[in-house]
Amino acid sequence: MATFSNRITKLFDIDYPIIQAGMIWASGWRLASAVSHAGGLGILGSGSMYPDVLREHIRKCKSATNRPFGVNVPLLYPDIDKHIQVILDEKVKIVFTSAGNPKTWTSVLKEKGVTVVHVVSSSKFAMKAEECGCDAVVAEGFEAGGHNGREETTTMVLIPAVVDAIKIPVIAAGGIGDGRQMMAAMVLGAEGVQMGSRFVASEEASSHINFKQKVIEAQEGDTQLTLKQLTPVRLMKNKFFQDVQAAQLKGATKEELAALLGRARAKKGMHEGDLEEGELEIGQVSALFDSILPAGDIVKNVWKEFNELLLNPVKKF
After folding, report:
1. What percent of the chain clears pLDDT 90, i.e. is strictly above it?
2. What angle do CA 194, 197, 201 make, to 5 degrees?
3. What's the rounded Cα separation, in Å, for the pair 171 and 189?
4. Paired strand residues for 44
5. Which of 118, 248, 255, 280 is least buried, going by the fewest C-beta atoms within 10 A?
6. What is the distance between the alpha carbons of residues 125 and 131, in angstroms, rounded to a whole number?
7. Predicted confidence band at 1 (pLDDT cuts at 50, 70, 90)?
8. What integer pLDDT is reported at residue 316 of this predicted model?
């Protein structure tokens, strides 16, 4: 397939402006290296890794591909300073930060020559990221799975708002899983797309097969944003989700909700495959998937669909 050149492909030295999100319990070295090898940008999800585990995944990813890859660092998790040190020690050149203030670590990373991208949910936060020296932003709409913005702005509204507000490149995320959605994002002004849910249902994702199967069986309306009192997160509806909703209707405090969430709830669901008691983070776009595919095929399919739409904008897949 022909390569493509814009600010995002040049920034990361990749063939196609397709980025795999750094999702907890799904984005290990097998997935990241497969996406990078296929011409996109693979991302390790450090949020579910201890520092020594992150180091292991970085080294295995380097061994598996000679193409660029990055690490996602959710700033709300503990031991961020240790994660950053591992990243610097291992000379990772691309870092995506999320769920926190980009000002905290951007200058430290930039001083070491690291390309820094921050995930935002509003044009206000996009401007802050630009002011901090970030090289690009991921503008993630309300449709996305996992931790989400309180603004609940949809991708169709968010992308043009962010594009108009800043000068650095914008990567669109939230509700993107095929070439049609990529085309829509690029028309709105994005220069690349980040996909999470589509790569959860890939062969190389470290998510449990039970969860992958649940994702490709999902229908419209099977996910919902919840836990807004703590940190908004989009979950698939299951027993745990219903327990959370019931607690919120009864007026549960933040402390009570945190106790209900407990420890390792996401690991229980997404990594260990407990579909009832586990936390199942996934986006609305999961309703459009019907198969678990190799990550490289996902990259190729999305890029092929995108290019076919360039030639025939009314084509149906």
Report:
1. 85
2. 125
3. 9
4. 71
5. 255
6. 10
7. low
8. 65
Look up residue 40 and give its two tokens.
């996109």
In this prediction, residues 122-127 reach a mean pLDDT of 96
Is there a contact between 269 and 244 (Cβ–Cβ < 8 Å)? no
In the prediction, which pLDDT does 32 show?
98
pTM: 0.95
User: Cα-flanking dihedrals φ and ψ of residue 229, to 5°?
Assistant: -70, -25
Structure tokens at 152: 């609940």
pLDDT at 311 (0 to 100): 85
Fold of 7-206+288-311: TIM Barrel (3.20.20)
Distance, CA of 133 to chain centre = 21
Helix (H) or strand (E) holding 165: helix 155-165
Question: d(Cα 169, Cα 159) in Å, to the nearest integer?
Answer: 11
* Lookup: tokens for 129: 């990221």
**In sequence order, which residues have a C-beta less than 8 Å from that of residue 172 and are 6 or more positions away?**
138, 139, 141, 155, 159, 185, 186, 188, 190, 192, 193, 194
* CB proximity list for 262: less than 8 A, separation 6 or greater: none
Segments in the chain forming alpha helices (H)? 7-12, 29-37, 51-64, 80-89, 106-111, 123-131, 155-165, 179-187, 197-200, 209-217, 239-249, 254-261, 265-266, 295-311
Domain ranges of the chain: 7-206+288-311, 219-285
Q: Which two tokens mark 157?
A: 């509204």
Which residue reads 């069986």 in tokens? 217
Query: Can you tell me which residue has the tokens 């020690």?
Result: 89
Rounded Cα gap, residues 170 and 139, in angstroms:
7
8-state DSSP, 41: B
Burial of 40 (0-12, 13-18, 19+ CB in 10 A): buried
Q: Where are the alpha helices (DSSP H) in 13-132?
A: 29-37, 51-64, 80-89, 106-111, 123-131
What pLDDT is attached to residue 12? 98
- In 3D space, the residue among 76, 106, 81 whose CA is nearest the CA of residue 168 turns out to be 106
Map residue 154 onto helix, strand or coil.
coil
Q: Which amino acid is at 57?
A: H
Burial class (CB in 10 A: 0-12, 13-18, 19+), 255: exposed
Reduce the DSSP state of residue 218 to 3 states and report it.
coil
